Structures are given as C-alpha cells and as structure tokens.
Amino acid sequence: MIKLYAKAKLPTMAGMFDIYTFENDEHQDHAVLVKGDVTGKEDVPLRIHSECLTGDVFGSRRCDCRDQLIRSLVYLGKQEYGMLIYLRQEGRGIGLLNKIRAYSLQDQGYDTVEANLMLGLPVDKRDYTFAVEVLKYFNVKSVKVMTNNPAKMDFLLEHGIRVTGRIPVKSTPTPYDEFYLTTKRERLGHQL
Ligand SMILES: Nc1nc2c(ncn2[C@@H]2O[C@H](COP(=O)(O)OP(=O)(O)OP(=O)(O)O)[C@@H](O)[C@H]2O)c(=O)[nH]1
C-alpha cells in the first residue's frame, strides 16, 4: 500500500487540481493530479500518461503525446471528478537517451517498433503498478480510462481494477506524426 508524501493545490490551464506525491514511489517523481473528490467513486475518468519530454515539454510533433496530455487535462478539468496519473517512464520505459537513439533510426526510415528492436530494447517496457496502487489508495471503485491503447486497460483489469469504459483520446495527425500513428495502430494495436 502506498503512503501519501505530500499534497498541494495545483491551479492549471484546465482548472484547479490537487497534486499528490507518494512515499513509496521508487522514482520519487511520479505525479498524481486529482480533480474533485474521487474517493470511493464509480466510473472515475482516468488518464494514465507516460512521460514524453520531447512532446509534453518541448511540443515535439513526432508523436501525439502533448496533444493527448492537453486534451486529457482539459477534459478532466470539466468533470466533477477525475484523475491524471503522470508516470515518469520516458520513451515507453527505455528512457530519454535510448528514445533519442531510436529516433535517430526512425530518421533513417525505420518505424518505432523496428527501432527499439534494432537497439535490443523492448518495444514497450512500461509498468502501471504504481497507477494501480494509487487507485487502491483512493479506494476508486471503477474507472473509465482515457486511452487508445488496449494494453493499458488489460493491465488494470489483470490487477483487479474495474474498468467500466474507455474514453478515446483522439489527436489531430500532422505530417510529422502520421507514420508514428499508423505504426501505433497497425503494430501496437492502438484504436486510433
Ligand atoms: N521508444 C519510443 N518511445 C516513444 C516514441 N514516441 C513516443 N514515445 C513514448 O511513448 C510513450 C507514450 O506512449 P504512446 O504509445 O504514444 O501512447 P500510450 O500511452 O501507449 O497510449 P495512449 O493512452 O493512447 O496515449 C511516452 O513515454 C513517449 O515518450 C518512440 O518513437 N520511441
């Protein structure tokens, strides 16, 4: 069971949230944004977002990460309650250094799956255990997951979380991320 470390108000561009950090977070840097009171609630809208420095912070168009992050925040900001769990697992868990190596291969024409494999790295090394612990901490009864990635929903279901729906997080494709989005759909099973 995770333990609360600190909680504070976080006024954002999408309205007022509370930000939580937890003691048992081995990275010490995951963040949980909560809108309203989610304790004991059913059908809690939930975004589990994996860190993408290039997209989330720099606005890179190579991926749809920032678009999804902003859309999720804006959506959650309009709800009575909801959560965004921001996991610091950059590059689908391979880290920034390796992600940029993978980008370099993608610049040569390989897709995002091939690039990871050529580097001897897993295609998706992410772990959502922390998110499961957070949901249990808040005694959330069931969630509606904001994602296009069925693997994320499967993970929650396999770890005892009741998933009552999926909220698609559509982004607007650009010439820069079209190939990436096609690869996500065709090779990673995303429902785009
Ligand atoms: N290794 C690698 N990671 C990437 C690449 N592009 C984006 N990422 C990372 O992918 C993660 C986001 O994963 P996505 O597959 O875009 O989306 P998802 O989280 O699985 O699914 P959604 O819930 O629909 O957003 C972030 O950690 C990004 O840093 C890439 O080309 N290579």
From TrEMBL:
Copy the pathway line from the protein's UniProt record: Cofactor biosynthesis; riboflavin biosynthesis; 5-amino-6-(D-ribitylamino)uracil from GTP: step 1/4
Q: What does the cofactor section's free text say about binding?
A: Binds 1 zinc ion per subunit.
**Which UniProt keyword terms apply here?**
GTP-binding, Hydrolase, Metal-binding, Nucleotide-binding, Riboflavin biosynthesis, Zinc
Cellular component (GO) terms are:
cytosol
Q: Which residues bind GTP?
A: R47, I48, H49, S50, E51, Q68, E90, G91, R92, T112, T147, K152
Q: Which cofactor does it need?
A: Zn(2+)
Positions contributing to Zn(2+) binding: C52, C63, C65
Task: Tell me the GO BP annotations in alphabetical order.
Answer: riboflavin biosynthetic process
UniProt-listed Pfam families: GTP_cyclohydro2 (PF00925)
State the superkingdom: Archaea
What EC number(s) has UniProt assigned to this enzyme? 3.5.4.25
- Name one molecular function that GO assigns to this entry: 3,4-dihydroxy-2-butanone-4-phosphate synthase activity
Task: Give the positions the UniProt entry annotates as the active site.
Answer: D124 (proton acceptor), R126 (nucleophile)
> Start and end of every GTP cyclohydrolase II domain?
6-168
Extract the InterPro entries matched here: GTP_cyclohydro_II, RibA, RibA-like_sf
- So what does this thing catalyse? GTP + 4 H2O = 2,5-diamino-6-hydroxy-4-(5-phosphoribosylamino)-pyrimidine + formate + 2 phosphate + 3 H(+)
Q: What's the stated role of this polypeptide? A: Catalyzes the conversion of GTP to 2,5-diamino-6-ribosylamino-4(3H)-pyrimidinone 5'-phosphate (DARP), formate and pyrophosphate.
State the family it belongs to: Belongs to the GTP cyclohydrolase II family.
This protein is called GTP cyclohydrolase-2
